[in-house]
Amino acid sequence: MDCSQIRDAFLNGGALHQEQVEEHLASCPQCRALFEPDRSLGRELAAQASEVLSLPQDFFGQIEQRLARETGARAWLRSRPSRVRLLFLVLLVLCVLLVGGVLRQRADFGQYPALRMILLLCVYFVAITLAFGKELSESPRAEPFADYLGLLAFALAVPVLAAFAPATEVSRLVGAGGAPSCFVYGALCTLPIALLAWAFDRDDRPTRRTVCLSAAALGLAANLLLELHCGNGNPAHVLLGHASLGVAWLVAWAVARGVSRA
What we know:
The chain is mainly α. It is built from 13 helices and no strands. The chain has 2 domains: 51 residues, no CATH class; 195 residues, no CATH class. About 2% of the residues have low confidence.
C-alpha cells in the first residue's frame, strides 16, 4: 500500500486493510498524521478536497450551452481584435452622421457658426471614440467605477449645455414643437450603432461599466446627429428631443441587457 491509495480511500470513503495500513504508517509520518487523532485530520482534508473538486450537476450542460453561443456571426464578430471592433464602430458612427445629419441637414446649415461646428465635432467625436474604446478594450479593467460615471455625466451634460448655447438667427425663430419627432429620429438613427455594439460585446451579462460607456457613446452620437439635422435652437426642444436621448439609451441598455456587476 502507498500514500495515494490511503488518500484515495479518505476521498472515496473506501475500506482499508488494517495490517497493510499499519505497515505503511510505520514508515510514513505524513500518512500517519492523517490518522491522528481518530482519523480526524484525514477526514477534514478529504471533506475540503471534495468541496473543491465537486462540480455543479449541470456543469457539462453549461459548457455545451456556452460553446453553442460561440458559433455564428456574432461569435465571429466578438472574436475580432479590439482595434478592429472599434474601427467598425467608429466607421458606422461616421456613416450615420453622414446619412442622418449631413445629407438631411438643418435648414440653417449655411448660417451655422463654423467654429461651433468644429468644436462640437471634435468634442463629441473624441468622447464617442473614447467611450467605445474603453468598452472594447482588452486590457485589465482596474479603473474605478467612478471614472466611467464621470464620462457618462460628461456625455449627459454636454447636450444640456448645448441647449443654452447661442443659436443662429434661423433657429431662434423655431418654436419648441417637434421634440418627439427629433427624439424618435435620433433613436432610430443610432439604433444600428447600438446593435453593432451589442454584437461586438463579449459579455452576455454586461457590467455597469459597459452600460455607462455604451450609453455615453450612443447619447453623444444621437445628439451630434441631431445638432447637424435639426435647426430648432429652443432650449425646451433641445432638452426634451435631443439631450434626453442620453438618459433614454442608459435606461434602455440597462433594461434590455441586464446588469450583473460593477
